[in-house]
Design a protein that fits this description.
The complex is a heterodimer of chains A (about 110) and B (about 120). By secondary structure, chain A is mostly beta strands. Helix content of chain A is about 0%, strand content about 50%. Chain A has no helices and eleven strands. In chain A, strands 2, 4, 5, 6, 9, 10 and 11 form a seven-stranded mixed sheet that branches. In chain A, strands 1-3-8-7 form a four-stranded antiparallel sheet, with no helix packed on it. Chain A is globular. Chain B has no helices and ten strands. The chains are: A mainly beta (about 110), B mainly beta (about 120). The interface between A and B is medium-sized, with 22 and 21 residues.
Chain lengths: ~110, ~120
C-alpha cells in the first residue's frame, strides 16, 4: 500500500494567514492526489483534484501543487469558515489511501 | 446535482453482518464507480472498496475476506456488507461517487459494534 504522510497533524492560525499543509507519498504517484475538507459532523468535500485542479465552486484561496512524492495544499488567506480537517488522498494505486489528516484551528 | 443518501443498522453485536445501502438521486449509476469509505472515531479515512454499474469490484485487501459490495441498477442503489464484525469495525461509514476523485459523499452512518 502507498503510505500518505501529512504534516502537521494540527495547525493553529489567524484569520488572514497563509496556511500550508504538506503531504508525502511513500512512492511516486505522479499527480494522482486529491485534497478534501471535512467539517465537524459532515462528510468530506473535494477541494483539489489531480494535485492542482480546483473543484468547481471552490474558492480560489484554496490551491494545490506538487507531483511525484511531495505535495502541498495552501489556503492563501484563512477565513473563519475554513476551520476543518483536511485530508490528502492518492488514487495512483489500489488500495486508495488517505493521509492521517490536518486539523486546522483559528488562533 | 447528484445526491447520495445512505442508511443501515447502527448498532451491531460482534460476529454480526454490517449492511448499508446508498441511494443515488438526480443521477445514474452508469459511467461511474461508487465507493465505500469508513472513519473510526477520532481517526482518519480508510477506503473499503468500490463497484461500477456493471458490478465490477475492487476491495481493500485488509477487508477483502469479509466485504461484499453490490449494485442494484433498478433501484439506483449500491450496498456494503461486512461480515463477522468486531469492535474494530466501529466507525462512521460513507458512500461516495467515484473511484479516483471522490465526490459527492453521503451523509455518513455511524455503526457501533458492541456486545
Amino acid at each position: 500500500d502507498i503510505q500518505m504522510t501529512q504534516s502537521p497533524s494540527s495547525l493553529s492560525a489567524s484569520v488572514g494567514d497563509r496556511v500550508t499543509i504538506a503531504c508525502q507519498a511513500s512512492q511516486d504517484i505522479s499527480k494522482s492526489l486529491n485534497w478534501y475538507q471535512q467539517k465537524p459532523g459532515k462528510g468530506p468535500k473535494l477541494l483539489i483534484y489531480d494535485a492542482a485542479k480546483l473543484e468547481t465552486g471552490v474558492p480560489s484561496r484554496f490551491s494545490g501543487s506538487g507531483s511525484g512524492t511531495d505535495f502541498t495544499f495552501t489556503i492563501s488567506s484563512l477565513q473563519p469558515e475554513d476551520i476543518a480537517t483536511y485530508y490528502c488522498h492518492q488514487y495512483y494505486n489500489l488500495p486508495r489511501t488517505f493521509g492521517q489528516g490536518t486539523k486546522l484551528e483559528i488562533k | 446535482q447528484v445526491q447520495l443518501q445512505q442508511w443501515g443498522a447502527g448498532l451491531l453485536k460482534p460476529s454480526e453482518t454490517l449492511s448499508l445501502t446508498c441511494a443515488v438521486y438526480s443521477g445514474s449509476l452508469s459511467g461511474y464507480y461508487w465507493s465505500w469509505i469508513r472513519q473510526p472515531p477520532g481517526k482518519g479515512l480508510e477506503w473499503i472498496g468500490q463497484i461500477n454499474h456493471s458490478g465490477s469490484t475492487n476491495y481493500n485487501p485488509s477487508l477483502k475476506s469479509r466485504v461484499t459490495i453490490s449494485v442494484d441498477t433498478s433501484k439506483n442503489q449500491f450496498s456494503l456488507n461486512l461480515r463477522s464484525v468486531t469492535a474494530a469495525d466501529t466507525a462512521l461509514y460513507y458512500c461516495a461517487r467515484g473511484e479516483a476523485i471522490l465526490g459527492p459523499w453521503g451523509q455518513g452512518t455511524l455503526v457501533t459494534v458492541s456486545s
